[in-house]
Description:
This protein is an alpha/beta fold. It is 31% helix and 24% strand. The protein contains 15 helices and 15 strands. It has helices at residues 35-48, 56-61, 66-69, 133-137, 157-164, 173-177, 179-182, 196-202, 205-222, 263-277, 293-296, 299-310, 323-326, 353-360, 365-368; strands spanning 2-11, 14-20, 24-28, 80-87, 97-105, 113-122, 125-130, 167-169, 226-231, 242-246, 256-257, 281-285, 315-319, 336-342, 345-349. A hairpin with a 2-residue loop joins strand 6 (113-122) and strand 7. The termini are far apart.
Amino acid sequence: MQITHLSLKNWRNFQKVDVHLGPRTYLLGPNASGKSNFMDALRFLRDICKPTGGGLQKAVKDRGGIVSLRCLHARKDTEVRIEVEMSDGVESDGSTWRYILGFKPEGKGAQRILISKEEVWYGRKRLLMRPDPADEKDPVRLTQTNLEQIQANVEFRPVAEFFGSITYMHLVPQLLKYGDKIGGQRLDEDPFGQGFLERIAKTPQKTRDARLKKINQALSAAVPHFSALRFLPDEATGRPHLEAFYEHYRPRAGWQREEYFSDGTLRLVGLLWSLLEGDSLLLLEEPELSLHLAVVEQIPVLIDRVLRANRNKCQVVISTHSEAMLDNPGIDANGIVILEPGHEGTTARTINAEEAAALSSGLTVADVVLPQTRPKGIEQLGRG
């Protein structure tokens, strides 16, 4: 299943969003334009559907409450709404599923978050419409979505399962290298890779070995002198480790554990593993960080190659500022979403006819679109 269309109303710094999403969507915009907030709308749906316990109330609370979620420019209309259209795959014609969720504060008493609208469509058939007569008799029901309830989502469980399988990965190398020394509480879903090695350890050995073999091939091309990668638990503690061997080390120097990997190598391993692991929706924020420009240039090709070889239908949404990445001529123009900040919040759009014509003539996204995300007055930054 893949998301083909996303609409937002009063979500964080967006008053209104209505955009198409492709199998590979590149999210472009200046700093603080809302790229992370855009992705968080999709994570919000995931959090509602967490199999380990989530729900609407917790998803809102974890984000600081409705006051933090609702767009500051929403002066009269207090409803926040997310609408997602989905297809069964890249080759499907049109949207198969549509899920709509609107919610707002109760406005009195306990100040609970109440559902103002919840609909599910399969093709032209509406499977759910709330509020319904049962909600009117018992308004407390409106504190929970049918999406999050196993007994209530039977007819559209594929939607709940799809949302629940959305993955967000923004591996922070230092948390992985020095996790034992840093300590601290690990966030739900571990978005920053603190438990990345444990994730690898829990993977069945045959699957793990196959993935590491593919990662090994990619690292051999991207990392100088890299020779081999292996997974090896510590004999004394049982703690999982990745080890790499580099050709330029002395023969008796042995294998080097992940704490000696470069930040770029660790982020590349995390990116590749996430691509090989997922068959749903993968959210990547600035995957170019810590990587050499020559590697960054190949990220679009790398993503397509890995997913084709793995024969999965993983959809990827990528936020980036990277000119090197966007200079790749293979990026599909239909997969570009541009965020534009304004006085009444940020707007989102796909490329226009003029930009499409420029791209068709042989120019790249870096040539045509990226300059438009340049902050106004940036030259003042370097002046005294």
